[in-house]
Design goal:
homodimer, 348 residues, 3-stranded parallel beta sheet, two-stranded parallel ribbon, 8% strand, transferase (chains A, B), Nicotinate-nucleotide--dimethylbenzimidazole phosphoribosyltransferase (chains A, B), EC 2.4.2.21 (chains A, B), Nict_dMeBzImd_PRibTrfase (chains A, B)
């Protein structure tokens, strides 16, 4: 099974130039929409056309999976919550469901590695790789074959979405203890010490924080040996959900589809995706800055400036979808505002 | 004509408490929606009910007016642009029109003091006070009677909106050179030096910046003598648009209707409104942090933390409406997310 991605194209330079020029013709002082102007230009470049189209089908895919390390007390919630939350996504009761509805996006949830006996609909489990993962502080998370399967899944999911008309993608996460492997991956790929990446996750107390710090320290020791090889890294300290998400983010770039990144877990997947498919990050913007300390390392490493900074730490794609209306405004102002000439407004 | 506002009630403490408690029952780690949780609690308190209602009619009112000081070269645009932009709002081509459509809000534009021969529809000019204003660096902006008329207009506009079903309000501005009187008002009410408040407005060059700095210095000298009296301050260095906006913001609080503040000009009006109606600021949140340096003084003075920081400096209400989807998400997550009990999710 191949884990190679084709060469990633850059967003369209001509559309980028046209968008920059078009902004100067619109009825507002030059540059006065600040970051929204940059985002509009980025959307035009990703779409390869100026003015950009309004998004027809913004889409959140939630990658759910359990993590063996949850058994070692690194989360405030028991592992059974992962499967319970998958059910909650399916009935529309989670934060991402409500927020996506406001932003005009739809939500798809996929069980990549949930450790549950619950019977989810076939479309939820169609890409399932396994139940849970090895506890990354002591054993490999996955086998090589499982990594390959997860990468194939992530790639197929992105293809399904783009073929289905999705023109803006968000990768959300759901998995109790998933900030532990995510933090290890970020530390490994940014060359950071364990203490720089240990966060409070779902809101752990000091005892759990110490257990998590130990797990991250031990996992990072194992991860550093393989950090130059993204497949080996996913096998050693990843998980089916994170591996699939990384491939999804890489494949979105292959398919020239813009992505809004969420927080810590999507950030860890993004770092791996940039290793799998260098240049993919040009197709991404960072929706927000998470409370999790390791997320700052992701933003720095990928050279991304977050749109929002609202002390979010929920995951599910919420920090990305919170930024979607702003990206939509950015695209639509560039496309729909009057020009000075059309409106008969004197230029400054 | 009275410029007294009734006592401003505080948002409902009981609904506030219920909202804080409800957040703990929703299917997410406690506090994980960060600022969105605080905003949801604020909406519930303003509405006096938990769960809060979704906004039925969010509304932007753009207060347009010219400023005599524009004749002294303090803006990058000629004064005729104010009237031209009013026409642009009416045909839907301005940034605020496009952004409000994304956010689910409607826009009303009012000519309070535009210096134009253009014939606007009657509903646009219904509250017009005068054409332009005195150049605030040397003469009074308005007469006392004009201040009274503008305050009555702002109050009536807020009443019309709330009576018409508006349940969230934004005050936008349009007026070439309006950052000059706004900056003077902010300096006067925050006890700041001129150099601390002089910004680039629509994007002025260094020559215009120096002219603007002189105008602000001279205007501030005049303003300081009357800064303890909001009516005298509006007369001396305000304008019909800013005076009406101040009354609108105060009356919104009287009518217990939440407001998202925009940037510099709405900030200046907000400082005056808080003088006219102490406590009104509890009914406001700051949509964003403007590029304009004086806006930071407004946020500090009113003790408001901006939701966004996107280098916006357009006005029209754009920085407020950019934040509206987040306030909507805040209200709707609080109202619509499943509880742990309902969703059968184990609590942490």
């Amino acid at each position: 099974m191949s884990t190679e991605f084709p060469h990633i194209p850059t967003p369209d330079a001509q559309a980028h130039r046209e968008a920059v020029a078009r902004h100067l013709t619109l009825t507002k002082p030059a540059g006065s929409l600040g970051r929204l102007e940059e985002l509009g230009v980025w959307v035009a470049a990703c779409q390869g056309q100026c003015p950009p189209r309004p998004f027809a089908r913004p889409r959140v895919v939630v990658f759910a999976g359990d993590h063996g390390v949850a058994a070692h007390g690194v989360s405030a919630f028991p592992a059974e919550v992962t499967g319970q939350m998958v059910a909650n996504f399916l009935t529309g009761g989670a934060a991402i469901n409500v927020m996506a509805a406001v932003a005009g996006a739809t939500v798809r949830v996929l069980d990549l590695g949930v450790d549950t006996d619950a019977e989810f609909p076939e479309q939820v489990t169609a890409h399932k790789v396994r139940r849970s993962s090895g506890s990354v502080d002591r054993v490999d998370a996955l086998t090589d074959d499982e990594v390959y399967a997860a990468i194939a899944a992530g790639r197929a999911i992105a293809d399904e979405e783009v073929d289905g008309g999705a023109d803006l993608l968000v990768a959300g996460d759901m998995g109790i203890a998933n900030t532990t492997p995510a933090s290890i991956i970020i530390a490994a790929l940014s060359g950071s010490e364990p203490v720089a990446v240990v966060g409070r996750g779902t809101g752990i107390d000091d005892q759990a924080w110490m257990r998590k710090a130990v797990a991250i320290r031990d996992g990072l020791r194992r991860a550093r040996r393989v950090s130059a090889n993204p497949v080996a890294l996913l096998r050693t300290v990843g998980g089916a959900d994170i591996a699939a998400m990384a491939a999804f983010l890489a494949q979105a770039a292959v398919r020239k589809t813009p992505v809004i990144l969420d927080g810590l877990v999507s950030g860890a997947a993004a770092l791996v995706a940039e290793e799998l498919a260098p240049g993919a990050s040009e197709w991404w913007v960072a929706g927000h800055r998470s409370v999790e300390p390791a997320h700052a390392l992701v933003l720095e490493q990928l050279n991304l400036t977050p749109i929002l900074d609202l002390d979010l730490r929920l995951g599910e794609g919420t920090g990305a979808i919170a930024a979607l209306p702003l990206v939509t405004m950015a695209a639509r102002t560039l496309a729909e505002m009057s020009t000075f000439t059309d409106a008969g407004v004197t230029e400054g």
